[in-house]
Amino acid sequence: xxxxxxxxxxxxxxxxxxxxxxxxxxxxxxxxxxxxxxxxxxxxxxxxxxxxxxxxxxxxxxxxxxxxxxxxxxxxxxxxxxxxxxxxxxxxxxxxxxxxxxxxxxxxxxxxxxxxxxxxxxxxxxxxxxxxxxxxxxxxxxxxxxxxxxxxxxxxxxxxxxxxxxxxxxxxxxxxxxxxxxxxxxxxxxxxxxxxxxxxxxxxxxxxxxxxxxxxxxxxxxxxxxxxxxxxxxxxxxxxxxxxxxxxxxxxxxxxxxxxxxxxxxxxxxxxxxxxxxxxxxxxxxxxxxxxxxxxxxxxxxxxxxxxxxxxxxxxxxxxxx
Amino acid sequence: xxxxxxxxxxxxxxxxxxxxxxxxxxxxxxxxxxxxxxxxxxxxxxxxxxxxxxxxxxxxxxxxxxxxxxxxxxxxxxxxxxxxxxxxxxxxxxxxxxxxxxxxxxxxxxxxxxxxxxxxxxxxxxxxxxxxxxxxxxxxxxxxxxxxxxxxxxxxxxxxxxxxxxxxxxxxxxxxxxxxxxxxxxxxxxxxxxxxxxxxxxxxxxxxxxxxxxxxxxxxxxxxxxxxxxxxxxxxxxxxxxxxx
Lengths: 322, 245
Prior knowledge:
Strand order of the largest sheet of chain A: 6-7-8-3-9-10
Oligomer: heterodimer
Number of strands of chain A: 14
Strand content of chain A: 25-35%
Strand content of chain B: under 5%
């Protein structure tokens, strides 16, 4: 298909005892924003490193715009832009000089690189800091300049590795808007993240990756569809409720009970949940409810269901990231 | 053309960012000059002996100037990940590495001319064969840079690169015939001298400055070029093997 920009087939990579990537196959289509969603250590960065030529796979094929990247690892470098998970610009150069230097690596003429650097600094709201050393920038500013450096040569395909991890909320929002704008302009984007809401908000298609394996790939709409008709409630308790889901399941066979942690319970049904009856029952069991809330089915529910990774782990990772 | 824009700008960036900074000038120039002064005073000879010491000073200036820089331009950039930015650029790895070492080579050549300029005021340099001297200085600079490059690629930390460099640099001062002939060395050390690139560079410098030499000029040039080629290829191999995992 001409529409396929990146084609990955049977990709494998092992580091000593760790199988970082286990038989991965996927395609990226022209102009799409493809999300790679998984917890830390799932193999997201390894995949990007292999696709961009910074690592070698043990097996498999990679084609970027038809170029065999295993046989010619550097042949597709002109087409791609890479924004790594940690800023890799020069701390001793100013923001402006960093952008101009990155432009020279792609053979861009002096006149053009000055124009592009100024334009990017303006759109990334970094003009005031343009002539300050990169080493003095805040985390958010560093990340924005690293993205600007990744797109200064106007690549057809952009790899973004955890672009909003570890930065403040305002900068993260701004970066998400910049990614959406790049997507609107037609750039094909490969985005790795462990923020489910980010993937849900930005991506056309999402691949769930766990332990170096893609467990599901689909559009956000298709992923959420099976849960659209479901009613979901979350209950929080004071004290341990580990023994109760089985008891509740017997007494309320129409509902589905899932223990989220020892103090949290998830209730799911295809019919409206009779909250009063359920709360009375729980109180009769001498359980102290601290919170009960209705929730909309989200990509997080799908992720938990498909990958089997506890929602708590995802939340902890989010907190760590922020 | 695109690749040459990248090539030139990598050299210019490294020169501005690293080479023309005071610590490099002190390490590259003051240290070899102090070393030479020590020899000069110890020997008790006058200015007439300056020509016999000059080849050693030039060689040490190049050696220390170049090898100390690669730990920064390569190992440090690898450590802070800015080297990845270069690996992602659409430039052949060989050209990229020549660009990364180009600044050090030029810095080494510039270092070589500092003692020459000082000597020009103190002694007669009209006998120097500049047609051999210039390519010799360039070749020593190439060989020293690629030795530093080989070391920089083989380690992960800047301090490791500096320590490992000293492991080569200091023995080379004594073993390569810079300040006293290899023939004066104990017989068991002499084979070691011929395994070091600076031996051939120093022999050429002695020949061009005051005429004494042991090996033919052509053979010296061929062996020195061979060292450059081997060290560069070995470094590229190490980068591919150790850094592109």
